[in-house]
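Protocol step 4 of 5: obtain the predicted structure for the target chain.
Materials: sequence only (see below). No template structures provided, no constraints applied. The aim of this step is simply to have a reference model before the mutagenesis design in step 5. Sequence pasted as it appears in the construct record:
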Amino acid sequence: MSTTARGDAFEQRVYDALSKELRDERLCASPRNAKILKKKAYHSRDRGAAIITDVSIEIFLPDRRRPSLVWIFECKDYSGAVPVDDIEEFHAKLQQIGEDNTKGTFVTSGALQRSALAYAKAKGIGVIRLLPDDQINIVMYSFRMNCRQRGMTGLQKVSDLCQPTPTRSNRLTAAFNTCRWRCPGGPVELRS
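Step 4 output (C-alpha cells):
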C-alpha cells in the first residue's frame, strides 16, 4: 500500500471513530449543533490559498450560518514516534485557519516524541491515539479559547461548552484531561 493510500485509510478510520463519538455525544459537542467533515478547505490569509484539513468538526451556535468553533484533526499513521516538527507545523496551520475560533487535536496511531507532547501541551493542542480496533484513547485533552472574543463572560458558560462527558467507557479513556482559557480575569484551568 502506498503512503498516500495508507494515510487516506487512516484518515477514514479517524473520521469513522470521531463520527461515532460525536453521534454518541462523547465529545464536547452535540450532534445537534455540529457537523463532521473530511478534507474541508479553510482559507489562509497568510498563504492566500486554502489549507485542506484531514478531519474537522464545525460547531454552530443556534441559528448561525458560520461555525463559532472549528475543531481540526490532523491525522498521522507513523510506524515511529511523531516528531515535534509535525506538531509545530500543525500549530502553524491552526493559526492560519483562525486562531481565535479554532481548536486543534493531533491524532496518531503511535506515540509522540517527548518534545512533541510537551509542545502540544504548551500550545493547547489535544492528542488522541487511535488504537488498532478503532478505539479512541485521549492522551491529552486541552481546550483554549479567548472568552472575550467568544462573547462569554462567565466561567459557567464556558465550562458548559467544553467539559467532556464524565462517563468513561472502554472506548474512551482519558489519561489527561485539561481545559484552559485565557479569560478577562486571567488564565483559568480546569482538570477533570
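Step 4 remarks: The chain has one domain: 3-139. The two ends are 41 Å apart (CA to CA).
Proceed to step 5.
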